[in-house]
Write a structure and sequence with these properties.
about 450 residues; about 85% helix; 13 helices; single chain
Length: about 450
């Protein structure tokens, strides 16, 4: 690491990871496009009801993958390879437990979950199918996220990116094949999504077949303190991912009462694009994580500061570009997903796009600073940031602004929440800088 300049290493890890995360987010964006084209507004509404559970599955994989990967990177930089392998083994135990719970939920409770989220009629039937299949594929999603995080921290960010992109591109192709030529409807969309992590794992497999991996499972029992540190470091990643799902659940409920299924379908366009935008920020954050963790492990404060500075600059540049594009092309973006040409859906989506994405720079700041705290073994500030934006602030703000401003209030709830949390996050960062960085 000392032989590489901070800027070059930042560019290498982050550019690869952003590309990979954009590709990964295409799982759902491809579903959105092809479902809207093949199944109309009901299909969009059904997909939107199921997305929060997908976010929770993906977030659980990131929780144990990022939490374990952070601990692994710190320990490896300190030369403690035995404990690093025990961390990986504990992560596998956690993945097995979570996978069992998700599969059981898919087999037993898929219909109850959709009913709880407000699904009725044809929307209920399609959403239940999507949810059941995605839960049955949960073991593949979890294992893929774990391996991606560990391979990235094992010095192979190129392979991690290739696996993410390969899985995502296969999903796009299979989506079209299963929905249109094969006529498999919503099942085709979710089956294509479920196959993608399996393809990604296959792309990662040469890292292990050729024995390039420095991490491997070892004989050890699950250990409470080790598991707690993994989860503590990984919970912010879970909350960052799940917060998108929580926002969708709350907004769906509010919008159903105001604009019905057409409103939910319009919000589905915004929610899915939001997942792509957040994935770019997550890509920057996950890209800097191995560098931050290694720098923290060896006490290299200069590289730590430089890497964070580059991440903030990149995040602000991306935010300006994204909001500029949304502001300029909102009608065209909405029309892409409005296959039935509904004027009501078009009007709601255009207004929502222009207001909702004001949140871009604030959300990016929160994601990057949360990862900074996680990567430097300061989980408490990361927990505060993640929980406020994902649960404790967004819900009351959404309820309050919806009561005051109806649909305009709903669209503004996300940027208002992210702005308030960003102010707090910056304050926590300034406070943390007074303390030395050491493992």
């Amino acid at each position: 690491m000392k032989d590489t300049s901070p800027l070059k290493e930042f560019a290498r890890y982050t550019s690869l990871n952003v590309l990979g995360m954009i590709g990964l987010s295409c799982y759902i964006l491809a579903d959105t496009f092809f479902v809207s084209l093949g199944l109309g507004a009901d299909g969009l509404a059904a997909l939107n009801l199921a997305i929060p559970i997908y976010s929770f599955i993906n977030g659980s994989g990131l929780m144990i993958g990022m939490g374990g990967g952070t601990r692994y990177s710190i320990l490896k930089s300190q030369g403690n390879h035995r404990e690093a392998n025990r961390v990986f083994t504990n992560v596998l135990y956690l993945a097995a437990v979570l996978a069992s719970l998700f599969v059981a939920a898919g087999l037993l409770f898929a219909g109850d979950i959709v009913r709880l989220f407000g699904g009725t009629g044809n929307v209920f039937t399609m959403s239940r199918t999507y949810l059941r299949v995605i839960l049955l594929f949960a073991p593949a999603f979890l294992m893929n996220n774990v391996l991606l995080c560990f391979v990235r921290n094992d010095g192979a960010p190129q392979l991690s990116m290739a696996a993410m992109l390969g899985g995502s591109f296969s999903n796009v192709v299979l989506d079209w094949v299963f929905i249109f030529p094969c006529g498999m409807g919503i099942f085709g969309a979710v089956f294509a999504t479920g196959l993608a992590p399996l393809i990604s794992i296959c792309i990662l497999s040469p890292h292990f077949i050729q024995k390039k991996n420095q991490f491997r499972p070892v004989a050890c029992r699950p250990q409470g303190q080790r598991t707690a540190r993994i989860l503590s470091s990984g919970v912010p990643s879970l909350v960052t991912e799940v917060s998108s799902g929580i926002v969708i659940i709350v907004f769906n409920s509010l919008i159903l009462g105001m604009e019905g299924n057409t409103g939910v379908a319009a919000y589905g366009v915004i929610a899915n694009l939001s997942l792509v935008v957040i994935s770019i920020y997550t890509g920057i954050a996950q890209g800097i994580q191995p560098i931050l963790s290694r720098s923290y492990g060896v006490g290299d404060r200069d590289r730590l500061s430089a890497t964070l500075r580059y991440a903030v600059i990149a995040m602000l540049g991306v935010s300006v570009a994204i909001y500029g594009a949304v502001l300029a092309f909102a009608p065209q973006i909405a029309a892409v997903f409005n296959s039935e040409g509904s004027p009501t859906l078009q009007a709601i989506a255009v207004q929502g796009l222009r207001l909702y994405f004001i949140a871009c720079p604030f959300a990016g700041c929160n994601v990057v600073l949360s990862m900074y705290f996680t990567s430097t073994d300061r989980p408490l500030p990361a927990h505060i940031i993640s929980l406020l934006r994902g649960f404790f602030l967004i819900i009351p703000v959404a309820l309050l602004l919806a009561a005051v401003g109806q649909m305009v209030g709903i669209w503004l709830a996300f940027p208002v929440t992210e702005c308030l949390v960003a102010l707090l996050a910056v304050g926590l960062f300034i406070r943390s800088r007074r303390k030395p960085a050491h493992a």
